Hints:
- It is found in: Cytoplasm.
- The chain is α/β, with parallel strands linked by helices and 642 residues long.
- It has 17 helices and 34 strands.
Amino acid sequence: MTSDTLAPAIESAELAWRDGVPESSRFGDVYFSRDNGLEETRYVFLAHNRLPERFRSVPAGGRFVVAETGFGTGLNFLATWQAWRERAPGHPCVLHFVSAERYPLTRHDLQRALALWPELEPLARQLLAQYPPLVRGTHRLVFDQGRVRLTLHFGDVLEAWQALTFQANAWFLDGFAPALNPEMWLEQAMSEVRRHSAPGATLATFTAVGRVRRALAAQGFAMRKTPGFGRKREMLAGTLNTGPEPPSVSTDRDIVIVGAGIAGTLLARSLAERGFPVTLLDAQPQPGQGASGNRQGALYVKLGVEFNDQTELALGALTFGQRYYHPYQGRFWHPTGLLQLAWSPQEQSRQQRFLDRNRYPEELLVPVDAEQASRLAGLPVDTGGLWFPGGGWLTPSALCQALAQHPRITLRQGAEVTRLTPCNGQWHLACRDGGGLVAGTLVITAGHQSPALLPLAAEHRFKAIRGQVTHLPEPALRHRPRAVVCGQKYLNPCHDGIAVTGATFDLHENNPHPSADSHRDNLGQLDAMLPGLLAPSCPAPEMVEGRVGFRCTTHDYQPVAGPLHAAGHDLDGVYVLTGLGSKGLAYGPLLAEYLADRISGQPHCLPDHLARRVHPGRMFRAAARGGPPVLQKREHRPLNSQ
């Protein structure tokens, strides 16, 4: 790739292999010591940051954050992960590793480099399996059932530190030598290191260059020279002498999540895996019975023609979702691929402009003609489109039920919340079943019911949109689709003899029951998109079956995740995750991960500009008479829905 590569693609590293060791052709330097790269990492970074001994003292529900200035081959990360496995305490806690890389290795080069270390092979295999496509921005990778989290930013290191929210307990100042890559070692970069350092943070670096030592000392680090590794005479280590390391967020605070759809169950699972007990409430008899209750749902986003914040969020959600669902393959996740059909002249024009203005790796999407699209989808189509090889479909309700099964998740079914009352810094919840709860942290993930629960006297900009899907028996189709096909409607492959198509977009209707008119709309638009697909034996709209759900959407059709915002400040202890619209399966995993980061006080997986985009504060206008939104006791009256 060249420096003028169109977004979101990013230039990969250019390597020269000498005696089996990778060198950067761009910087003329090796990625690790020719003597023994793994031992160098252990000596320079792990030992001089005292990581093995510090890992043992991480409290239950706590986290230890390592930040690194150049990901390179991932060797430092894997060595740290290995040490965490060996030395971390037995109780639940998380290792966070935050790293930036301007010129990431391709998957092939990464595999070749890491093959030099057979003892790391089990960890390297997992890293390679989750290694993100080479697109700009921030990627979150989760390992060891949530005990290890890697936040990997592809882009300039200064860009990363200015965009990300974290406080490091230890720093690996790695990367190529200061003389060869001076931008990484400038005073501005050192000031960002200080800004992102927790009290008592340590650092280590292979270099002993005087200006680096002076720049770090000017930021408050007590620096010292120490013998280097192998042929290097000296290296630097330092400590930020600003007091003891801060305590982690306590797991004793009662966390209550209202709503057990895809958003609520994903969030509950992320918190539980970090060591936080969670109570999950839902009015239905089991999780995933609202908008998440359809037989099938596609993992799908529509990427914008312009690579802006909205597109970046959608892309991040898509790639994280594909990684998140991978362990459920063959159970709830079916990665059949997905065809975004250029079904109309307008969509053909949009897709062409999209391709002209952007570059995406082929592992993410490729343009296909009608012949290729027909072969991939398993049915004849008249036009081409965009093929997403990592796309597919899920069974949402079964997934929600599986996510809720965790020792630290207490599930209360049939518990409809009727009242929220603030009292002494906590929230008192009354339920229709007569029970009550007290929450130190309250999260509302109740889909289209969420606005009725929000404890604010303010005009909000949420709206419920009815969506009806149609269940097509296999004989109703002349061809059985092998992949998800999306256009003006979507069509999923058959499962248990049924293919789901839809959904309607009924903004001004609140009928919770399937109607023949909505089935007629689905079938008519499906026939227009895929002419000749419906067989003569297809049931009439009055005879076909289906289901109705209500999506929660926002005025700007962007999701909402974060602390509830009132009168210019965040409302203490109350969070919202809703407004996912028809893309809950795509946005849910990433936004649940982000909200769990915030609640647990751990590094954020969203850069600041995307966190601002999903912040709940944009959803509320001033209260009546021109005043700001005000806190109030909230009575919940159920809406007319399933």
